[in-house]
Design a protein that fits this description.
Strand content: 15-25%
Subcellular location: Cell envelope
Protein name: Iron complex transport system substrate-binding protein
Distance between the termini: 69 Å
Low-confidence stretches: 1-13, 23-31
GO biological process, one term: iron coordination entity transport
Order of helices and strands: HEEEHEEHEHEHHEEHEHEEHHHEHH
Family: Belongs to the bacterial solute-binding protein 8 family.
Mean pLDDT: 91
Keywords: Signal, Transport
CATH class of the largest domain: Alpha Beta
Helix content: 40-55%
CATH topology of the largest domain: Rossmann fold
Amino acid sequence: MKKVFSTMIAIATLLILTACAGQTSSKSTTSSKMVTFQALNGKIKIPAKPQRIAVQNYPDEVASLGANVIGTDSWAFPNPYLSSNQKKNMIDLGAPKFNLQKLIEQKPDLIITVDKDQVADYQKIAPTVLVNYQELSSMNKSLDYFAKLLNRKSEEATFKKAFTKSANEQKVILSKAGIKPSKTTISLLELQGGKIYAYGDNFARGGQALTTGLGFKESEKMQSLSKGTGYAEVNAESLASFDADYIFVDYAAADQAQFTALENNPTWKNLNAVKKGHIVSMDYNKVYFFSGPTASQKELSLYTNAIITATK
């Protein structure tokens, strides 16, 4: 009986939220010119210049273009690279799906989601655009997509110019240290809860800073991940296939013992990167999930410094 009663309350709450949402949506969008955008979920009428954007997974991309992000998911929200100004109106809307009541209270005029199962609910609140992660596999592709969506092509050009300038500055520092990224291969690994994961350049972990920014070459196995799912769980015995001039390993403090154990593994000891002292340990909390344009720009110096420290 309690379960039935709880269900009835939940349904009633959703109906109330939906009614409120209709009012919120009409108020937030009528002041803007509307345009048609071809999204994964069809042709969507959206504001020509959205002012209050709720976005899953991509708050960095939206904020890097100077747009106002009023909410994002719990995983993306902690991004340490976004400035206080970029996050001034941003709240944590929950995960894996947004809390509908919080979302409505933020009065978005555009919602961007990666969750096709939630589109119907979100559309009752504001115009909703569904995006596909695989289609936004690099920093440049994602910037191009969101610049078109948000009508911010000039802001995109400004950001890319600043990013290129920052990257070139770091390349000079690497060159002075005798490191030529265009002739140097890399692989990305992560230790987590007793497991080992390998990554392509499109799944955070500094991938875009290292490739799009600094111009390092991916190892053959890393390339295959970049073209596919973006990551794979691997075992210690298979790590020889991920050998490269530099191997980047990130892990949380709780997994320090796992890294110590890996260092004693015979396969690990025989890697060329290990023998050269080119294993670069990275702070899990700074690199594991954050791969947007602003994060990648600020990670340029982080990785440059880490590489040079490991090379000495």
